Amino acid sequence: MRPADLLWIPASAVAAYDIVPDVLARRGQAAVRHGPAASGVVALSFDDGPHPEITPQVLAALEAASARATFFMVGENVRRHPELVRRIAAGGHAIGVHTDHHRHAWLCPPARMRAEIAGGLEAIVATVGARPLWFRPPWGAFNATSFRCARALSLRIALWSCDAGDWLPGTSGAAIERRVVRGLQPGAIIDLHDGGQTPAGCAAMARALPAVLAAAVARGLRADHIGALFDLPPLGPLSGLTP
Ligand SMILES: [Zn+2]
Question: Is 193 tagged catalytic?
Fold first, then answer.
């Protein structure tokens, strides 16, 4: 076998397992990036939490504005902060799956990918006694298994129409506010972070959040959880969970 052949085989396997599904998800209908504009709703979503300091600040801002949102949680953080998770569910917010350990799909073979999605789901179910309806893959990255697994668990896949950029090193609250306000359109899904590897960005986001929510009101938009864009409840009954 020629060296070129040795390169071609793993490259084609990577393309079939990771890159092709990823591109199809971003361009096709498999993942939701935007809701109907007629809804008059903007869906703020917070990834990577819950975090014991940032998430309560986010909840306080949402409660002050009578707004609801979606929290895409990492399973290991759910197990660390169950009271916070239950408080979020009691507030009428949606909770979505963001894997169990925040793994990138392109680095997960099939068994690992299934364990990451199922583990993240089970952590939420065990904590709130209801089932999430949404899955957001970390970094928005897919592989072939993540599609099949999400479908088998009746999880809809949600990406976003606006990236707050609160994960960018050195970003400021003013820059986050500017990026989000630019994306505040009817049906928009906004991606923000209340946990993860950029605590300074999360803190800046939390400080900017009241101004973002005020801007949504000024535009006649209702900030609500992602299911409100599609006439779905924030969480589903356990009876609908596929084993
Ligand atoms: Zn994430």
Answer: yes
